[in-house]
From TrEMBL:
<dbReference type="GO" id="GO:1990573">
    <property type="term" value="P:potassium ion import across plasma membrane"/>
</dbReference>
<dbReference type="InterPro" id="IPR059000">
    <property type="entry name" value="ATPase_P-type_domA"/>
</dbReference>
<dbReference type="InterPro" id="IPR050510">
    <property type="entry name" value="Cation_transp_ATPase_P-type"/>
</dbReference>
<feature type="transmembrane region" description="Helical">
    <location>
        <begin position="860"/>
        <end position="878"/>
    </location>
</feature>
<keyword id="KW-1278">Translocase</keyword>
<protein>
    <submittedName>
        <fullName>Ca2+-transporting ATPase</fullName>
    </submittedName>
</protein>
<keyword id="KW-0547">Nucleotide-binding</keyword>
<dbReference type="InterPro" id="IPR023214">
    <property type="entry name" value="HAD_sf"/>
</dbReference>
<dbReference type="GO" id="GO:1902600">
    <property type="term" value="P:proton transmembrane transport"/>
</dbReference>
<dbReference type="InterPro" id="IPR044492">
    <property type="entry name" value="P_typ_ATPase_HD_dom"/>
</dbReference>
<feature type="domain" description="Cation-transporting P-type ATPase N-terminal">
    <location>
        <begin position="7"/>
        <end position="81"/>
    </location>
</feature>
<dbReference type="Pfam" id="PF13246">
    <property type="entry name" value="Cation_ATPase"/>
</dbReference>
<feature type="transmembrane region" description="Helical">
    <location>
        <begin position="246"/>
        <end position="267"/>
    </location>
</feature>
<dbReference type="Pfam" id="PF00122">
    <property type="entry name" value="E1-E2_ATPase"/>
</dbReference>
<dbReference type="InterPro" id="IPR001757">
    <property type="entry name" value="P_typ_ATPase"/>
</dbReference>
<dbReference type="GO" id="GO:0005886">
    <property type="term" value="C:plasma membrane"/>
</dbReference>
<keyword id="KW-0472">Membrane</keyword>
């Protein structure tokens, strides 16, 4: 039934219907579509081979240090230390299981994220267009495509309106192809000459079209070209790169210090294999081999939390950058406002008519008007409805509309003004020139009595320049400059009230080849109201408090944009507004000079956004940019954080962006920034925790050997400390909710070191204090409390573990109260309590005493342990005061 080998461009619509057993008017039935999907498989290219659970587990043992430890452990077993060797192997396996769990958790998170970002397509099923996942498309489906979409499969076009497709990804040709529906009779046409075809993965640059699915998945043209199907290598984020670099440094330092420990131990007469085993164990403990896995888990769990807040993070790098964002460049419509547009006023020449009802179908015109006025109003609304792509239908006495928000508003106004549902349905269109953000207008050509008629809607200042006549009281008159001035004055009044205004014009066409958009007859204005979203004003204030500047970028009239910006507190007193026309006349240097005092960019094109992003970045700002259209892609890609709209966004904007807002709401951006700050702070917390703990472990061993004392910890104890303290407590720190005042702090610098703000100094000082107190406990227990070496090691073992667990709470936030520190993170509290239970079991359970070389302790011993463990916390707390 399918395959790229067939010359689908030779098939007429009728032949397609017969061959593919479909219907271009009604599409497939849902039952038939499910049957074909089961038989033919999903519309997707071959998926990347997944790593099995066994492979993932084995991968945990590939670390050089771990492999070396296993070898040394085997040697120890051969020399008769079988129990120690077995316990160490078990600990290694437990560590590997923890690493496996962390990686598996991250893998599942990323798979869930991938499923959320799957594109959808509009497909005709059972006579109605519905949205389905693109991977569920089947041969014979009737699919609608429009500007900004990636073509979801190979289509034979059967209807189109000025559609242009960029096929460079498939053919390498940089010139976009203007498509048609004409049946081609040539044989063996190359792809770029198949103008009635649309191929999977290509980009619709403009216009819209409908096509029949002829090939899906691996049977599409792109699926057959193996050279174009490559799996992109996963790039490490800047944070991962920095951590990898840190890991390399730590490996060198730890191996050097470990070698030093081994050297001193051998000089002092310690057994070579025992010292070698201790040295390798110490290296395993010092090197935070679980750090990358914990970072991945924390980032992926943060991504999941963002999903609950209606934010889809496509690039984990964006999570890092969010916390450093200093400027948000936001669209107005749908992001700052509700995108629930309603026609509030219609201006016919010399008559302003208020439309009541808001975003509801009930309502009508405000006061009684003459029959002639009502006829003129209905005539304007009828033409406006014709020049839309919105649809209207009545089912079960309920009116349903679908399309762009502004076009739905026009349909609603027409219904309110008593136009029938049939009158609001779009007639057959002979030709359409779609709306374009550069042209700022849309035009359609329709049949009108014995001739044709062009209807144009768009930006008032553009259409007024294209008009030379005006319709007034049913008569066409010349449009003088005096009348234009009057119309411009009315336009200013409407826009200053915050309305988005569009003009409606028309003209008779006597030849189809005649120009559709000049010498127009001006009919009137339609004023649309789009109320600000709830809580957006509060979110903007929160952003300002957090040191993040909000900038409005819109295609709306300057007065409309300024009115909304003032209402939302974006535009302060003395703040500047720059128009697209002014922007064109500015040099880049001039723009950079004015950019910091500018808060609104009005009447700009998507291409202007790219200049704005570059100008802010030249001022060392970290820019988050929102967008939804195909032309927004360059600015989204250039910005530090590209944010696409999940509802209004096109496929290409979603594909280019780092973040997708599922609710298109500005408030969600602020929530994402807060979450980004929390995640980055949490990463710093557990890095501080792990490195401080590892420093303490190293120093307690080094201090003992330097003054000729026995080893304060045996290898199995060192590894157990590593398992208990570097595992769950560290991960729990990564799940902190963040302190309440995190959005009162300024954004961090983009290239800020992980050890900035005194973190590096604190790691060294706290690690030194932890090692020193643990070492003093060993001396006290071994030389003054009269205990055995096993007793001293038990005291040292417990002090080291407990001091690290106490330090986990210190790493949360110094601004928190004791109650918040202890109970503000339930995961941390549970992990610490579990670790304490493990400590007690190891000390008092005889079988484990033999394994871990511990002895039972009395209550006075525990008092010493608690005092020595808490001392670093009290010392640093009071020295801060």
């Amino acid at each position: 039934m399918e395959g790229p080998c067939l010359d689908w461009y030779n098939y007429s619509s009728e032949k397609l219907e017969t061959h593919l057993k479909t219907n271009v008017s009604n599409g497939l039935s849902q039952k038939e579509a499910k049957s074909r999907l089961k038989r033919l498989g999903p519309n997707q290219l071959k998926a990347e081979k997944k790593v099995s659970n066994l492979q993932l587990f084995i991968r945990q043992f590939k670390d050089f240090i771990v492999a070396l430890l296993i070898v040394v452990t085997c040697i120890a077993a051969y020399l008769g230390e079988a129990i120690d060797a077995l316990v160490i192997v078990i600990i290694i396996c437990l560590n590997s299981l923890l690493g496996f769990w962390q990686e598996k958790k991250a893998q599942r998170s990323l798979e869930k994220l991938k499923s959320l970002t799957q594109p959808e397509s509009k497909v005709l099923r059972d006579g109605q267009f519905i949205n389905v996942l693109s991977q569920e498309l089947v041969v014979g489906d009737i699919v609608a495509i429009e500007a900004g979409m990636r073509v979801p499969c190979d289509l034979r076009l059967i209807d189109h309106h000025q559609v242009v497709i960029d096929e460079s990804a498939l053919t390498g040709e940089t010139v976009s192809v203007h498509k048609s529906t004409t049946t081609l009779n040539d044989d063996h046409l190359p792809i770029h000459d198949q103008v009635n075809m649309a191929f999977m993965g290509t980009l619709v640059k403009s216009g819209r079209a409908t096509g029949v699915v002829v090939s899906t998945g691996v049977n599409t043209e792109v699926g057959q070209i193996a050279s174009l199907i490559t799996t992109a290598k996963k790039e490490k984020t800047p944070l991962e790169q920095r951590l990898e670099h840190l890991g390399h440094i730590l490996i060198v330092i730890s191996l050097a210090l470990t070698a030093l420990v081994v050297f001193f131990g051998i000089i002092q007469g310690q057994a070579i294999y025992q010292m070698f085993l201790s040295g390798i164990s110490l290296a395993v403990a010092i090197i935070p081999e679980g750090l990358p896995a914990i970072v991945t888990v924390v980032l992926s769990l943060g991504v999941q939390r963002m999903i609950k807040q209606k934010v889809i993070i496509k690039s984990i790098q964006a999570v890092e950058t969010l916390g450093a964002t200093t400027v948000i460049c936001s669209d107005k419509t749908g992001t700052l406002t509700e995108n629930k547009m309603s026609v509030s006023q219609v201006y016919l020449p010399d008559q302003l008519i208020a439309i009541l009802g808001g975003y509801r179908l009930t309502g009508g015109i405000s006061t009684k008007h003459s029959m002639k006025t009502k006829q003129a109003l209905n005539q304007l609304l009828k033409k406006a409805v014709t020049c839309t792509n919105a649809t209207i239908k009545e089912t079960n006495q309920k009116v349903e509309m679908d399309g762009d928000a502004s076009e739905i508003a026009i349909l609603m106004a027409a219904v309110k003004c008593q136009l029938s549902i049939d009158a609001c349905k779009r007639p057959d269109i002979i030709k359409e020139i779609p709306f374009d953000s550069d042209r700022k207008r849309m035009s359609v050509l329709v049949k009108s009595h014995h001739t044709y008629e062009s209807i144009v809607k768009g930006a008032p200042e553009v259409l007024l320049n294209q008009s030379n006549r005006i319709l007034k009281e049913g008569q066409v008159h010349p449009l003088s400059q005096q009348v234009k001035d009057k119309l411009n004055k009315r336009l200013t009044e409407m826009t200053k009230s915050g309305q988005r205004v569009m003009a409606i014009c028309y003209k008779p066409i006597y030849k189809i080849t005649e120009s559709m958009e000049d010498n127009l007859i001006f009919m009137g204005y339609i004023g649309l109201n789009d109320p600000p979203r709830k809580h957006v004003k509060q979110a903007i204030r929160q952003a300002k408090k957090a040191g993040v500047k909000t900038v409005m970028i819109t295609g709306d009239h300057t007065d409309t944009a300024s009115a909304i910006a003032k209402q939302l507190t974006i535009l302060p007193s003395g703040g500047q507004v720059i128009t697209g026309q002014e922007l064109v006349q500015m040099s880049d240097d001039e723009l950079c000079e004015r950019i910091n005092s500018t808060y609104v960019f009005a009447r700009v094109t998507p291409f202007d956004k790219l200049r704005i992003v570059k100008a802010y970045q030249q001022q060392n700002e970290v820019v988050a940019m929102t967008g939804d259209g195909v032309n927004d892609a360059p600015a989204l890609k250039k910005s530090d954080v590209g944010i696409s709209m999940g509802i209004a966004g096109t496929d290409i904007s979603k594909e280019t962006a780092d973040i997708i807002l599922m609710d298109d709401n500005f408030k969600t951006i602020i929530a994402a920034i807060r979450e980004g700050r929390i995640i980055y702070q949490n990463i710093k917390k557990f890095i501080r925790y792990i490195l401080t703990s590892n420093t303490g472990e190293l120093l307690v061993m080094l201090f003992s050997l330097l003054i000729g004392l026995p080893l304060p910890l045996v290898p199995v104890q060192i590894l157990w400390v590593n398992l208990i303290t570097d595992g769950l407590p560290a991960l729990a720190l990564g799940l902190d909710k963040g302190h309440a005042n995190i959005m009162d702090e300024p954004p961090r610098k983009k290239k800020e070191s992980l050890f900035s703000q005194g973190v590096g100094t604190m790691i060294l000082l706290r690690g030194l204090m932890m090692g020193l107190m643990t070492f003093l406990m060993f001396i006290l227990a071994y030389q003054f409390l009269g205990g055995s070496l096993a007793y001293a090691r038990t005291m040292t073992f417990m002090t080291l573990i407990l001091s690290q667990l106490v330090h986990a709470f210190d790493c949360r936030n110094h601004q928190m109260s004791v109650k918040q520190l202890l109970f503000g993170n339930g995961y941390l509290l549970i992990s610490v309590l579990l670790s304490i239970v493990q400590m007690i079991v190891i000390v008092y359970y005889p079988p484990l005493q033999a394994i871990f070389h511990t002895v039972g302790l009395n209550r006075f011993d525990w008092i010493f342990i608690i005092m020595f463990s808490l001392f670093p916390t009290f010392f640093f707390h009071f020295t801060k005061k």
